[in-house]
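Researcher: Structure prediction, please.
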Amino acid sequence: MTNVHESEQLPVGRVLPVVVLDDAQLAEPLADALVKGGATAIEVTLRTAAGLDAIAALAARDDLTVGAGTVLTVEQAEQAIGAGARFVVTPGFAPAVVRACREAGVPVVPGAATATEIQMALDAGLNVVKFFPAQQLGGAAMIKALAAPFRNVRFIPTGGITAEVIADYLALPAVLAVGASWMVAADLIAGEQWDEITSRTRAALAAAGGAA
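Model: Predicted structure follows.
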């Protein structure tokens, strides 16, 4: 296992679109729309049966880094990595999943909502956690409070974040990136509204100071 900090390995940019796909055939046009808007990475969740196929479809791209989200089990982690996922995100702290990803040499970002869970991540050799669900847990103010004792931890807040509050999160030095889904909302994908997705992605990056 490597001791390199996860933040140095995670090519997620500053805004990470979090996607739920019901049809893997829409993965490519969705990716095209995101890249056109300036995105450099995408988290495809395993909340649907199409997730793994979508990851596989995007894995060969050199203009967008694809990761797997909502990974709950070691089996899912292995399947996602086998499909080409470059990073793995879990909603909570799952020691077995973290261990499997570390052994495979794939960056993993476990969910952490409390100081105890952050310490568990540190004990596992990680310094990047997903703060989820961010807005419901107290938003940017909560991350600022948690970051005070955990000075070397970086956060990727996800959950309920909108264009109106993204800048509040990205203003915090402890925030590595923000995971968001408003630019890739299910109705936009289902309606194949690629121009709107591109527009929202551009707006998100503008709110982030233009850094993908």
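Model: The domain at 6-207 is CATH 3.20.20.70 (TIM Barrel).
Researcher: Thanks, that helps.
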